[in-house]
Each structure stands twice: as structure tokens, then as C-alpha cells.
């Protein structure tokens, strides 16, 4: 990990920012909440909460169906979120932004609509050992149906992808490569631009799982040079049930619809139904309209703070938290990549992760324990579970201190 702060963050007023997040002011078991489970889901600022509330109070109607005023307003909020998302990730065109319920749906859309029709026995999908199950299981399901296999590129003990091995494994039978931008367990940032370049040289499409990247860093999907980019709204200040699949136009044009129903058709006839153009071809049924109103507000919120300030503060917190954790005897950190986001997985010798998390909760500290939907990564490290503290820009050094104090107390109880 780069041990130097990115830039001074003196003008980052974290206390002012925290006032935007009402939930951060609550107590848990009589203790001030320390919310360090941001990689699981982020808290929501008032601006997002109010956008959702306002949608239901003032604009609620279905999208793209009604000609009445409310229908137009609801459609405008939903399509406005698409525009904002397109700008946020530099999509090139709003038509290349498919609105989904989250990364999991985005991945499954690629699995069933892009991969399955192309895969044949002997083909392979290449992923990595550090992936979330959402970037493994959909590929296994379509591999099982088509006679293809799923291969996983290795990582090293520091939790970095062994990039040369990944490139070696990009053999001709690989029909799709899938890699996470940022690991949800280790915080590792993968060199996706280099990976995309090597995939392009070999004519292999690349999907990037951006779930854990967008909350922390600006993303330019065109500059990355990937084919597909998936993201989930609820980890980036927005409501649950919102997400995106961005894909290159040629893929979206070629992919058949996955879900059929209303909204995704041009004309339905029993002698042959025709479909809408992308992205609507992939958006059957009534979407999470209020949720996407919240997505628009979440993007505005990120942009009002600016990623350079967010990154500097989060990096400072990561360095501080890592240093403080290293003071604790018997504590082992999993994931020490040169470039990482503020996610720290760890174990304390002699203590079970779940026992620790349960006792930490009694101290008001919310961290996640378990396999983090990354069984193969746990198998790689030979542990059933870890504790994970995942930070956000609204966290503070004082919360890190409270967390470390709670850890020391809990450690004593369990030893
Ligand atoms: N990929 C990664 C790296 C994740 O962290 C998560 C969420 N934990 C997902 C995919 C799945 O996201 P969702 O549950 O929002 O679909």
C-alpha cells in the first residue's frame, strides 16, 4: 500500500458531511455507531433519501407508459438517472447504459444473453481467485449448460493478481474474461486497463465488476477499454435494487433479450414479436423508479464532493486504520496490495471472526465477518472467514480509534 497520503485533506470537512447522513448519528446497544461495513452497503445521504421520498410524494407513476404529467415526470427522473450514470462512467452514449437491479443482475444478463449463446464444449471463461460469487457463479451456470469451463487466475499472498499468469491463461478457448476492478475482501485494485489491453490484443471480451470501485474512484469505462462494466447503486450512496450494465454498443446490439415482458418490445404478435432497441430491450417490466431517482441524487452528491477529495480522505483513513490495527498483537491483515481501497480484512489469532463481530456489535461497531461471498479467496488463504472493516469518506479517525479500542476489549474477552 502506498504509505503516503495522496494530498493534504485539511479542507475536507468530514463533520459537515456526516450531518448529511442521519443514520450515522444513531446509537447501537447504547454506543455511538461506528459503521465500518460500507463494502456491504453504504449509508445514504439526506439528498438521496429526500429524492426517493419526493418521488413518492410528488411524482409517482409508471415510466414510459402514461402520457399524463406524472408519467412524464417519473420517466424523466428515471431517464435522468441514466444520463447522469452515463456521464459518471463516461459511457459515450446513454443508450449503452442498461439499468438493472444491481451487479448480480448485470452479470447474469451478460451470462445468459451474451455468453450462453456463444459458448460451446471446450470453451472457457477466465476469472480470478479473488472474485465475488456474483462474478463466478453465473459463469459456472452457463458453463454447465454449454460444456464450457470456468478457470481462475491466481493471486499472490499480498492479494494481488498475478497478472502475467492471467495473461498466460488468455488462451484461444477463452471466450470471455471477467475480473473485479476492486476486491470486496482485500481492497486490491486490479490493473484493469492493462488487462483490457491484453484481452483486446487476443480478441477476448473483458467484463469488469465495478461494484467496489465506484464508491471510491472515478471510472471511465471507455478509457479502461473493457467490453462490459457492471455496477451496483447501493454501495455508492443510492438505494438498493439499482445498478448498471454498461456494454459496448456492438455487444448490446447482438445480444438477445434476457427478460421478456412489457417495456422491452416494439410490437408483440403471435407470429413474431419484435424488440425495442438497447438499452430498453433489456429492461422488461416496471423498474425501481424511485430507486433511480435516488441514484441521480447520489451521483450529484459524489460530484459535489469530488473524487480527489474523497480519495485523499479515504486514503488517509486507510493508512491510519492499517497502522492502528498493526498495533494489535496477533492481528493478521489479508490484502496488502500496492494499490488498495479502504477495505481491511483481518483475523486475530485465537479468536473466531463471527464471535469477534458479534462482540464488536455490542460495542456499536458494525463490521462484516464471514466469507464475504468469496469462498475461493477464503480457500486460497486457508481460512473459513475473516473480519472486514470497510471504510467510506464519511468515516473519521476517531471512529478508527473507537474501533481499535473495541477490538482490544473484545480480544481480551475472547483470549
Ligand atoms: N461484486 C462485488 C465485488 C461485490 O462486492 C458485490 C456485493 N457485495 C457484488 C458483486 C454483488 O452486488 P449486488 O449484491 O449489489 O448485486
From TrEMBL:
Catalytic activity from the UniProt record: (sulfur carrier)-H + L-cysteine = (sulfur carrier)-SH + L-alanine
Assigned EC number: 2.8.1.7
Gene3D superfamilies tied to this protein: Aspartate Aminotransferase, domain 1, Type I PLP-dependent aspartate aminotransferase-like (Major domain)
Requisite cofactors: pyridoxal 5'-phosphate
Keywords from the UniProt entry: Pyridoxal phosphate, Transferase
Alphabetized InterPro entries for the sequence: Aminotrans_V_dom, Aminotrans_V_PyrdxlP_BS, Cys_dSase_SufS, Cysteine_dSase, PyrdxlP-dep_Trfase, PyrdxlP-dep_Trfase_major, PyrdxlP-dep_Trfase_small
Residue ranges constituting the Aminotransferase class V domain according to the UniProt record: 34-403
SUPFAM superfamilies, per database record: PLP-dependent transferases (SSF53383)
Family membership noted in the UniProt record: Belongs to the class-V pyridoxal-phosphate-dependent aminotransferase family. Csd subfamily.
Chain's role: Catalyzes the removal of elemental sulfur and selenium atoms from L-cysteine, L-cystine, L-selenocysteine, and L-selenocystine to produce L-alanine.
Protein name: Cysteine desulfurase
Organism per entry: Dyella lipolytica
Amino acid at each position: 500500500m502506498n504509505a503516503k497520503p495522496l494530498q493534504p485533506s485539511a479542507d475536507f470537512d468530514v463533520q459537515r458531511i456526516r450531518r448529511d447522513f442521519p443514520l450515522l448519528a444513531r446509537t447501537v446497544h447504547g454506543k455511538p455507531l461506528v459503521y465500518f461495513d460500507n463494502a456491504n452497503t453504504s449509508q445514504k445521504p439526506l439528498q438521496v433519501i429526500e429524492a426517493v421520498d419526493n418521488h413518492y410524494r410528488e411524482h409517482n407513476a409508471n415510466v414510459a407508459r402514461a402520457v399524463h404529467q406524472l408519467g412524464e415526470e417519473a420517466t424523466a427522473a428515471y431517464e435522468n438517472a441514466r444520463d447522469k450514470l452515463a456521464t459518471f462512467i463516461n459511457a459515450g452514449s446513454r443508450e449503452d447504459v442498461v439499468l438493472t437491479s444491481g451487479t448480480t443482475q448485470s452479470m447474469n444478463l451478460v451470462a445468459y444473453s451474451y455468453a450462453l449463446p456463444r459458448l460451446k464444449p471446450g470453451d472457457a471463461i477466465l476469472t480470478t481467485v479473488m472474485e465475488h460469487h456474483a462474478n463466478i457463479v453465473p459463469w459456472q451456470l452457463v458453463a454447465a449448460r454449454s460444456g464450457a469451463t470456468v478457470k481462475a487466475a491466481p493471486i499472490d499472498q499480498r492479494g494481488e493478481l498475478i497478472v502475467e499468469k492471467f495473461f498466460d491463461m488468455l488462451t484461444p478457448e477463452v471466450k470471455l474474461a471477467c475480473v473485479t476492478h476492486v476486491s470486496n475482501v482485500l481492497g486490491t485494485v486490479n490493473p484493469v486497463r492493462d488487462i483490457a489491453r491484453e484481452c483486446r490484443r487476443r480478441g477476448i471480451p473483458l467484463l469488469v465488476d465495478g461494484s467496489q470501485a465506484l464508491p471510491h474512484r472515478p471510472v471511465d469505462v471507455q478509457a479502461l477499454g473493457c467490453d462490459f462494466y457492471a455496477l451496483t447503486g447501493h454501495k455508492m450512496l443510492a438505494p438498493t435494487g439499482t445498478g448498471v450494465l454498461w456494454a459496448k454498443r456492438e455487444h448490446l446490439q447482438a445480444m438477445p433479450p434476457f427478460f421478456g415482458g412489457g417495456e422491452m418490445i416494439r410490437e408483440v404478435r403471435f407470429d413474431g414479436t419484435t424488440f425495442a432497441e438497447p438499452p430498453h430491450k433489456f429492461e422488461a417490466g416496471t423498474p425501481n423508479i424511485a430507486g433511480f431517482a435516488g441514484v441521480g441524487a447520489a451521483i450529484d452528491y459524489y460530484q459535489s464532493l469530488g473524487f480527489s477529495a474523497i480519495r485523499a480522505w479515504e486514503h488517509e483513513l486507510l493508512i491510519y486504520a492499517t497502522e492502528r490495527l498493526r498495533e494489535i498483537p496477533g492481528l493478521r491483515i489479508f490484502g496488502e496490495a500496492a494499490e488498495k481501497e479502504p477495505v481491511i480484512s483481518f483475523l486475530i489469532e485465537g479468536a473466531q471472526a463471527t464471535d469477534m463481530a458479534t462482540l464488536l456489535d455490542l460495542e456499536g461497531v458494525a463490521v462484516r465477518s464471514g466469507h464475504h461471498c468469496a469462498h475461493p479467496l477464503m480457500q486460497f488463504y486457508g481460512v473459513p472467514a475473516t473480519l472486514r472493516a470497510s471504510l467510506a469518506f464519511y468515516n473519521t479517525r476517531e471512529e478508527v480509534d473507537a474501533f481499535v479500542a473495541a477490538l482490544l476489549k473484545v480480544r481480551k474477552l475472547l483470549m
